Amino acid sequence: MLLRVLQRFLVLVASLAVASVLVFAFMQVLPGDPARIALGMNSSEESVARLREQFGLDRPLLVQYADWLRGLFTLDLGVEWVSKAPIAPQLVDRFAVTAWLVGVSMILALVIALPVGTWMAVRHRHADGVALSALSQVGVAVPAFLAGIILITYFSKQLQWFPSGGWVPPAQDPVEFLRRLALPAISLALVQASVLARYVRSAVLDVLREDYLRTARAKGLRPMQALTRHGLRNAAVPIVTILGLQLATLLIGAVVVERVFVIPGLGSFLLDSVASRELITVQTIVMVLVAAVLIINFLVDTLYLLIDPRLRTGAR
């Protein structure tokens, strides 16, 4: 098992290295001169040249890439070109906000999807199971930002139960933190729960048709008892697959939802940096998002080994 984990870790390291090269190369081919944008289009060539030297843009690309990588590892990312604000503290603070949003949304999605998807599978021939399946199809078709707008319209504007946006750190006011987190987390969770519930339904249905489950029921176990004791572990492997993908989708989807709810997370930081042409900041944020997705995939691969013993020995 340790050998397999090591192999997957080496793949992760190689993927991160390739991703860093691609992200850096993509930013280099974007049109526009950051130094001229920072000074204004009517600035003199001498001023632009001095600022390019200050930014280090006149150095060889390989040196710029090495300095950027070193900054990622040491969190010494310098300052923004236009605002002169330090990048690293903003990145850490914004990532913490996004982590709260994505983490709570994923927990809510699981709390909804696991029981609902299992019930949809067990009751797939009954009216309630068919109704839940149809409802999940509708949920899959609704974008998270649209769900957020609907939630704001009803629960914030009409009922006035929750604020329509903004952010309060949990250490500052836990109650207000939860109130402001509720609607964006629910808007992300509802969409992801609909997707996850359908995969849970499919995985549980496959397990329900297995011979070992029929044997367990023949020994006197009720359907839900047999499923809980002998089926859910086998159904977990395909569910973990989609869970990793959906967690990555949540991370990317939070970019738009943060904008809808005026949340100062990583997504808002990215969009603001794009608007102000802070290319080094954009480059760093994109790399952080890519690294998060790759690390999630690595953790999912490792979790396979814990769930399914056959993968540890290579048996099929």
TrEMBL record:
Lineage start: Bacteria, Bacillati, Actinomycetota, Actinomycetes, Micrococcales
Major place of residence: membrane
Entry superkingdom: Bacteria
Keywords for the protein's UniProt record, in alphabetical order: Cell membrane, Membrane, Transmembrane, Transmembrane helix, Transport
Record flagged with keyword Lipoprotein: no
The protein's name: ABC transporter permease
Organism: Ornithinimicrobium ciconiae
PROSITE patterns in the cross-refs: ABC_TM1 (PS50928)
Membrane protein topology class: Multi-pass membrane protein
Keyword DNA repair: no
Signal peptide per UniProt: none
A single Gene Ontology CC term: plasma membrane
Alphabetical list of Pfam families matching this protein: BPD_transp_1, BPD_transp_1_N
GO molecular function: dipeptide transmembrane transporter activity
Domain ABC transmembrane type-1: from-to ranges: 95-300
